[in-house]
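To illustrate this point, what follows is a protein record of this kind.

___
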Amino acid sequence: MEWTVKCKFCHNSFTFEGGESLPDACPSCTKGANPDVLQFFENQKKRSEFVAVSTQEVCGRKVAKSLGLVTTEQVVGFKISGALDLSKFNGGMALSLVDKLIKGREWAIRTLTDDALAMGANGLVGIDIRYESLGVKEEVLMVLVYAKGTAVIVE
């Protein structure tokens, strides 16, 4: 079968015949591309096929092999100006705190995923995310975002 694909480097269209998966780059860009850039696109493709769940099983799929535990710790800082006024929490202050916690969680999950991919996994089960306040110093609240999971190969 013949496919028309758009190159992610030069954005030109090219024709690709057969194969199991479509390439990210045209033949001319592949020849002259930086290996780190090619590796980036390969990792992006693996991430798009990656399964990450908080349960011990993946619904509808079988865990064929467990590769081990992956963990990460991320520290997120929040600038606190003046005394904390609880009335501000509905007026926007909480949203900035929540946004930073969300970013910390996403960063932690991304790190777990990258570490699992490096182990050869295509899935992550039993993801557990915890938050812990490390205290306030010089009007900055520091929060530890800790995450762990088990890297697996799912069929």
